Amino acid sequence: MHAWPASEVPALPGKGRDLRIHDTATGGRVTLAPGPVARIYVCGITPYDATHIGHAATYNAFDLVQRVWLDTKRQVHYVQNVTDVDDPLLERAERDGQDWADLAERETALFREDMTALRMLPPRHYIGAVEAIPGIVPLVERLRDTGAAYELDGDVYFSVDSDPHFGGVSHYGTEVMRTLSAERGGDPDRPGKKNPLDPMLWMAARDGEPSWDGGSLGRGRPGWHIECVAIALEHLGMGFDVQGGGSDLAFPHHEMGASHAQALTGEHPFARSYVHAGMVALHGEKMSKSKGNLVFVSALRRDGVDPAAIRLALLAHHYRADWEWTGDVLDEALDRLGRWRAAVSRPDGPPADALVEEIRGALADDLDAPAALAAVDRWAETQRTEGGTDEGAPGLVSRAVDALLGVAL
């Protein structure tokens, strides 16, 4: 599966700072100091409705992580998956009378278009669950053969008790985990499981549903968590720098994925840090496909909204915050974009070297994009009211905003 084209990232004078970011697993900030190549895995979409503002906010957060790393003169090895076969996708296809594969392909293509328009840097590896199945099957067989997994009526489940570090990502209690498991694709009440929290690794073929050759597992399809584990282990290996996604993925997805990988390899941790973005609401409720309260990036683009304004609307909120999308949010972003473009369109302006360092410092401090925006606002206001004589300043500001914030002026 191919990703989307990369926008050019302008080079800036000097060098960026190492990123301090909130790690869910430790509950505090950690300094990310990767080697020459920083490794990040961000969980992708299930393509039955793409791309709403909640998706865009999550991918914007991890795009900032990449930009901070690139500014430190590192390379970035970014991997993202597409869950192109799963129950929600199959249910939507059946509801709408569509072929599930056609639905997945169409929505994935739309996602690519949205990411391109928003200037999100693409992953080096963009892998669908279906194409990952040949690598998933041997992992499930290994877990089963070592006693970390078991069969139940033809399905294969992972035993969470096989990983002594289980619970170390989310730190939720058992009852909270059980509740969230039921809400987020698990089946804690299924009779015969060794532990109600045990997640499915391989689902035996069901009538009327797609299935693939699973070798000794029989025909079927993979569970959700093992998909990401197989892709991450193949392309990044254990101990990569950041596992990212929305806050609703901390449990069960990232918790279970970590345990799968740790049971497979005997190593810990799966990822050095777990970074989670907040949720976006509409009309007082979390924006979600199940509720249908979605604002789509593609719809905004069709209405003529500049993608740079959409991105500024996302950047106006701290990545870990839960916030609500409103018309005012977009209006404020459009106004800011206009002010910034007017400021950099002049032939000279106030010196901007300090501004670049202020943006760098804000982003290095747990991706504080609102503080970075406020710094550019101050420069633009000085430009408007006082002007300046530095001929290189407007161009430097334009390049810095592009390189570090992903906004083209």
Automatic annotation (TrEMBL):
EC number: 6.3.1.13
Residue positions of motif 'ERGGDP' region: 183-188
Family annotation (Gene3D superfamilies): Anticodon-binding domain of a subclass of class I aminoacyl-tRNA synthetases, HUPs
Catalytic activity: 1D-myo-inositol 2-amino-2-deoxy-alpha-D-glucopyranoside + L-cysteine + ATP = 1D-myo-inositol 2-(L-cysteinylamino)-2-deoxy-alpha-D-glucopyranoside + AMP + diphosphate + H(+)
Annotated cofactor note: Binds 1 zinc ion per subunit.
Residues spanning the membrane: none
GO cellular component, one term: cytosol
InterPro entries, per the entry: Cys-tRNA/MSH_ligase, Mycothiol_ligase_MshC, Rossmann-like_a/b/a_fold, tRNA-synt_1_cat_dom
Subunit note: Monomer.
Database matches in NCBIfam families: mycothiol_MshC (TIGR03447)
Protein name from the UniProt record: L-cysteine:1D-myo-inositol 2-amino-2-deoxy-alpha-D-glucopyranoside ligase
Classification lineage: Bacteria, Bacillati, Actinomycetota, Actinomycetes, Kitasatosporales
